Structures are given as structure tokens and as C-alpha cells.
Please model this.
Amino acid sequence: MNLSRRNFLKLSGVTSLGVILGDQLFDLTPVMAQVKSFKIKTAKATPTICPYCSCGCGLLAYVENGNLINMEGDPDNPVNQGSLCSKGASIYQLYVSDTRLTKPLYRAPGATEWEEKDWDWMLDKIVEKAKETRDKNFTVKQTIDDPKTGEKIELTVNRTDAIASLGGAGLDNEECYILHKLMRSLGVVYLEHQARI
Ligand code: SF4
Model:
């Protein structure tokens, strides 16, 4: 359709008038409310946190019959008060994407292909590797110069320098507390975190 600038302005004016008149002649409020609530009416809403960035916006995940059917901003969350950026607003696509990974993948040392593994196998492997690395690189005693006298002194340190921990922005206070306790109990001293929540 070839639309001149003048015709475009006329058409916009007529459309706006139609919208205004439509709003005044018919009360669409109950219809709009019904449309808005219909999809999630019987679904269970569970608060969660957006995993994308350090803002940590709150989301509501609506689940019905074991299926996630909708995600939206949580109006009760003090961080975002219901609003989401465009990335957070499209988060439902994480769930429905054809390219979403649904099983852990493992690539053995030297292998070129990934293998599908179940979670039990993968968690056992992670624990096995963490323990192996820690045990091979565990320091019980360390000799340092006494800052006052300059003499050599031996300290009990019980640490490993071979493992580091990086916390994600989606972790809340309690999760960080547990992660910190776990890392300290392993002797990890390099802890970093992108804490915002
Ligand atoms: S909704 Fe946007 S701003 Fe908020 S945490 Fe997610 S990515 Fe960050």
C-alpha cells in the first residue's frame, strides 16, 4: 500500500479517534480483566529470581499440571516491583526453546564428543574431581616470616590453592551462606562473588 505522509497522518487520527470512542462507548474493563487472568487463573505462582544479570529481578513462575505456563515480573519484589527488562521479559523462552539442554553433558578428557549423563552420575563425578583436586593440593602447614621479628614461623593453614569459587548474581543470602560454609570446609580461600541481592 502506497501511503503518503498526509494520508498516514489522517489515518492515524481516525484510528486514535476510533480507539477513544470505542473506549467511551463500550466498557471493556471486565473483558480485558478476563483476558488477562484467563491463562494463569488456576496456575500456582512461585516467586523466583531472574538468572540473567546482577540486578536479580523477581519473577513469578506459573505452573499448571507440572508445566510452566507463564513467567512475569513479581510486583511484590522490592528490586523490580513487577517490571522486567526485555531480556527478563522473554525468559519463558528459556523453558520452551528447542535448543535448551535438559540433561547434563560430559566430555571425557581427550574426547571430541559430548555424552549424555544422568544427574546422579554427574554429581558423583563433580564430587570425585573436587575431592581429588583438594587432596592433591592440600596444605596443612605454611612457613611465613613473622611480621614483627622477621623470624620464620610455622602456621597451621589447612587450605587448598587449587580450587576457587565464583558466586553468581542469582544467589541469595542463604544460598551464599551455605556456599561459603561448603567452600571453607574444603579449605578453599579464593571466594569471589557478584553479590547484589
Ligand atoms: S529482568 Fe533484566 S535487569 Fe532484571 S535481572 Fe533479569 S536481565 Fe537483569
User: Anything to note?
Assistant: The first strand starts at residue 44 and ends at 49. Helices lie at 5-25, 29-38, 86-89, 92-96, 119-136, 173-186. Residues 50, 52-53, 55-57, 80, 84-85, 87-88 surround iron/sulfur cluster (CB under 6 Å). The chain has a mean pLDDT of 86.
